[in-house]
Amino acid sequence: MRGIGTLVACLVLGSGCAGGGAEKRDAAAAAAARDRTEARTAEPALLAQLLASLGEDPAEAIRGAFDRTDADRRQASLREVAASRYGDRPAMLPLYRLLLTDPDASVRAAAVSALARHGAAGDAARVAEQLRSDDAFLRWEAAKALRHLPGEAAVAPLLDRLLNDEDAGTRVAAAEALARYPRRDAFEALRAALVDADYAVVAAAAGSLETLTGRSLGTAPEAWGELSAERGDALFADARPYEPRVYREPPGFFGRLLGR
């Protein structure tokens, strides 16, 4: 599937064929290092601002999110803040965005999750950058988050991850996120994903194609190709409303007793 993905990306998407991959990675690493340096410089002022505006109630969790000595505490504190009654306040957005530059992937994953719940316009591009990570869990979190954060800047990274990511969960989430983009490149990438070795990816791609076109044609790439040729510019005329999938934890013991 990965070889097919690269071929489709070259022929259909026009990406991933030119050289210079090492140079791009070096440039991205240098940019990330600059972002981390700038973030550390901004931390004291942001911490003081948050504590002054929100009071002492969430102070412990907020301080924990700035604890540079303990990544586990930072990510746990960030998740606590995002889930709290303060989590959706505009004052919190700079904190979530700041921690997208954290050197620890688990902290960046927590920041991505927070932005999926509370993000604003422009955050799709910030989250899409995390799809470049070497950490599979972070890429999965980013792809999931982009189901909730629309933005054209996210399309190309999602196409790339759908066709080339080694992690099946990330490919599934990318396929689901692409259902919100009625574009030919998204359609063709989803059609290519119908031959993925993992059936969960195939099912997600077929579901997104159904959303984009309003048709149910199963998992045969040829059927979708025929529809594309038949419908032409009207391919997306019958698109269904996009409804992002929401993952919920299974109920615990008492939840099952109460029928929740």
Automatic annotation (TrEMBL):
Pfam family, one: HEAT_2
MF GO annotations: oxidoreductase activity
InterPro entries: ARM-like, ARM-type_fold, HEAT_type_2, PBS_lyase_HEAT
Spans through the membrane: none
PANTHER family xref list: DEOXYHYPUSINE HYDROXYLASE (PTHR12697:SF5), PBS LYASE HEAT-LIKE PROTEIN (PTHR12697)
General function of this protein: Catalyzes the hydroxylation of the N(6)-(4-aminobutyl)-L-lysine intermediate produced by deoxyhypusine synthase/DHPS on a critical lysine of the eukaryotic translation initiation factor 5A/eIF-5A. This is the second step of the post-translational modification of that lysine into an unusual amino acid residue named hypusine. Hypusination is unique to mature eIF-5A factor and is essential for its function.
Protein name: HEAT repeat domain-containing protein
Origin species: Phycisphaera mikurensis (strain NBRC 102666 / KCTC 22515 / FYK2301M01)
